[in-house]
Design brief:
CATH topology of the largest domain in chain B: Alpha-Beta Plaits
Oligomer: heterodimer
Strand content of chain B: 35-45%
Helix content of chain B: 25-40%
Largest interface: A-B, 23 and 25 residues
Shape of chain B: elongated
Strand content of chain A: 15-25%
Radius of gyration of chain A: 24 Å
CATH topology of the largest domain in chain A: Rossmann fold
Number of helices of chain A: 23
Number of strands of chain B: 9
Structural class of chain B: alpha+beta
Shape of chain A: globular
Strand order of the largest sheet of chain A: 3-2-4-5-7-6
CATH class of the largest domain in chain A: Alpha Beta
């Protein structure tokens, strides 16, 4: 292969093409203009989505990455452009989402001089990136980008940032591209130790009340089939974190539901009765464990995890199997005996019956006049045959959507889990739609979060992305209000919102929509939204004091899960 | 129980890595008592020696967070007893007391310290040792009003007969090559 002479900015685009990038989210500005100029020649190969704010670009890239499993790519200029990416980078870091962020930077002689639109984005993004690097000469570009893609999407994925000084973009180099497959100081995954697998298999065969907890590690590791085979062979009930949601079909008989603060009654309560916890690709977030000192004390713990630093971080493992979830589960299935735990599984069923009676039936089939979020989610899920991609924002609607939306297919749930980023939903739905153009994407968003990134309606309209937006409007920051009601004596300090006419705003952006407030109109409203050709906003007026239950109060044990206030 | 641990980090020499390493500590509100960085015996690989007071459980977690950093090859932790360590201290003392008596000379001899420079105004004394030793010398010399005092971070070496890093690097290289 002979090298050809190109500019640094052309090298950026050529490198991205070498990595198979076909979609970029971004926002131009002074310090990234040479890259944008080079992009102009490649519009037939690359779709560039011009968002209305850099936060929209990065959440878009996250949505894309989550549904495709490929790194999301975004561009931003120096200074404010770069700093506007930070929330999304932090979100991607904690949810292990692969991203390659490319930011422009002032020319290298100006570094450190407080030049116009200079910000130390490399310094600022250190705590929230898996890796970052500043390029100051054009020759470094191909290797830096190759390393960026390798690091972002290998091992435990995460966001990386490449900061390109303007002189590196303008300068010339002999372009040659070699994909990165190895970095001396970086070990993306470890070889699975068969002794640990054997030890885990022995615990599993001996257990009477075992429980699988699975998370994002199943989806990232594309281990859905291996998980299914493992639970089917052993007959072990499996519960999920919200990042693991959709990895096992909702209707699978061993899928016993959601863990954590607003998870299902059984998985929380029975965590403290199980004799064995098999945690796969989860990091024992405090929203999952509740009070750690009272978490599953009676159980042996097997922790299957690709990132060694997660083992013994929160919960001490009796057996840790470090490695890729797909490989570990396959080995484990080969080593365990066929089994079933019908009686134990029935405990979950009993808990579910209680939960249906106390919570779920009222959420999904309410008799009170006000509309509930639960009935909206149920209809949206049913009317898409549980085949849609669900994107949520953060808050009550998110928990309700995670609880009640059903899934047949993996990689179908896009939500901000670890960081809990309000404003995530709308822009992430654009990325999800671009990543899965043939699927129905439903964005469920509250009235608070919607107004944090509402400007992205413009991007959705301009790119004709047929996202179906369900706005759950209770004129409140509902989750905060719920906590105020339960833990702050109903002192509703700054949680009530005076909202605009959302339908008029959507129409102003060229997006059709309507508002529904009556139960008798809800069914046909969801139909109308789904049948609409193009993006659509369905605003639903939600009962003001609709709460999310069950609930493990902050700092309480999982077995103290409350079914009602 | 909190006690003194010495963390050794072997890394690439990349810009920004010092920040990446130190924020692993600051984020957990762990104070770094001492930090030294220099090139290791293996060219291109840098060695950080970091001293903290912490529980062993927290120290273990910090070490695994350090190893997770892309540019870090390997991190170890040891108690002070498991390592041989040394610090260096410099003391600037006014010259007059030297003219007046042999007290300073005796202190220097007794401490196996040495004199680096003598001018008409001051004398610079150097001592290596553990922190308690360099501190004790400071207190002794301070009766003559020490003008300036500086102590280095710690350097430390394990009591292991083998260099663990080179073995580790060999194994890792073989493993990385075996990956597809």
């Amino acid at each position: 292969m002979t090298a050809k002479k190109v500019t640094g900015s052309q090298a950026v685009i050529l490198s991205l093409l070498e990595e198979g990038v076909d979609t970029i989210f971004g926002y131009p500005g002074g310090a990234i203009m040479p890259v944008y100029d080079a992009l102009y020649d490649h519009s037939e190969n690359v779709t560039h989505i011009l968002t209305r704010h850099e936060q929209g670009a990065i959440h878009g890239a996250q949505g894309f990455a989550r549904v495709t499993g490929r790194p999301g790519v975004c561009f931003a200029t120096s200074g404010p452009g770069a700093t506007n990416l930070m929330t999304g980078i932090a979100d991607a870091m904690i949810d292990s989402t692969p991203l390659v962020c490319i930011t422009g930077q002032v020319a290298s002689p100006l570094l450190g001089t407080d030049a116009f639109q200079e910000s130390d984005i490399v310094g600022m993004s250190i705590p929230v990136t898996k890796w970052n690097y500043q390029v100051t000469t054009p020759e470094e570009i191909p290797e830096a980008i190759a390393q960026a893609f390798y690091i972002a999407n290998s091992g435990r994925p995460g966001p990386v940032l490449i900061d390109l000084t303007k002189d590196a973009q303008f300068g010339e180099l002999d372009f040659e591209y070699k994909k990165c497959t190895k970095i001396r100081s970086y070990l993306p995954e470890m070889r699975v130790d068969p002794h640990h697998v054997k030890a885990a298999a022995e615990l599993i065969d001996a257990a009477k009340k075992p429980m699988v907890l699975f998370g994002n590690g199943i989806i990232i590791g594309r281990a859905e089939d291996e998980l299914k085979e493992f639970v089917e062979k052993t007959g072990i009930p499996a519960a999920w974190t919200i990042l693991g949601l959709s990895a096992l079909p909702s209707n699978h008989p061993l899928n016993v539901g959601m863990l954590g603060m607003h998870g299902n009654y059984g998985p929380n309560l029975l965590t403290n009765e199980a004799d064995l916890i098999i945690a796969v690709g989860i990091r024992f977030d405090d929203r999952v464990t509740g009070k750690v000192s009272e978490y599953a004390k009676q159980a042996k713990i097997i922790h299957i995890e690709i990132d060694p630093s997660e083992v013994n971080k929160i919960v001490m493992a009796d057996v840790a199997v470090i490695g890729d979830s797909k490989k570990v589960l396959k080995m484990l299935t080969d080593n365990v005996k066929q089994n079933n735990h019908a009686e134990w599984l029935n405990e979950f069923k009993k808990c579910m019956d209680i939960e249906i009676d106390k919570v779920i039936s009222k959420d999904l089939y309410p008799e009170k006049p006000g509309l509930t979020m639960g009935e909206v989610i149920r209809l949206a899920s049913e009317k898409t045959n549980h085949d849609a991609i669900l994107v949520t924002d953060v808050g009550q609607h998110q928990m309700i959507a995670q609880r009640y939306f059903k899934f047949n297919r993996s990689r179908s749930n896009v939500t901000s889990g670890g960081l809990g980023t309000m404003g995530f939903g709308l822009p992430a739905s654009m990325g999800a739609q671009l990543g899965a153009p043939d699927r129905t994407v439903i964005a469920v968003i509250g009235d608070g979060g919607f107004q944090m990134t509402i400007q992205e309606l413009g991007t959705i309209a301009q790119n004709k992305l047929p996202v179906k937006i369900i706005l759950m409007n209770n004129n409140f920051l509902g989750m905060v209000r719920q906590w105020q009601q339960l833990f702050f004596e109903k002192r509703y300090s700054f949680t009530e919102l005076q909202n605009p006419d959302f339908i008029m705003i959507a129409k102003g952006f060229g997006i059709d929509g309507h508002k529904v407030s009556q139960r008798e109109d809800l069914d046909s409203s969801v139909d109308k939204m789904l049948a609409h050709d193009g993006p659509y906003l369905l605003e639903v007026t939600i009962e003001k004091e609709d709460n999310v239950f069950p609930m493990v109060p902050s700092g309480a044990s999982v077995s103290d899960v409350m079914l009602e206030p | 129980m909190r006690k003194e641990y010495i963390i050794t980090v072997y890394s690439e020499n990349h810009i920004g890595l010092l920040t990446r390493i130190t924020i692993v500590f600051t984020r957990r509100k762990i104070n770094i008592d001492s930090l030294t960085v220099s090139e290791s015996a293996i060219p291109g690989i840098y060695k950080f020696t970091i001293v903290i007071h912490e529980t062993e459980a927290q120290t273990q977690k910090v070490v695994s967070q350090l190893e997770k950093l892309v540019d870090v090859m390997k991190a170890f932790y040891h108690t002070s007893e498991e390592m041989i360590s040394q610090e260096i201290a410099l003391y600037k003392v006014p010259i007059e007391p030297i003219y007046e008596s042999d007290a300073i000379e005796k202190i220097v001899r007794r401490n196996s310290a040495r004199i680096l420079e003598i001018t008409k105004d001051y004398v610079v004394i150097e001592r290596t040792g553990h922190k308690e030793e360099t501190q004790a010398l400071f207190e002794e010399l301070n009766q003559f009003k020490v003008m300036q005092f500086i102590r280095s971070g710690r350097v430390a070496i394990t009591r292991d007969p083998i260099e663990r890093l080179s073995e580790f690097l060999k194994e890792r290289d073989a493993y990385l090559d075996s990956l597809d």
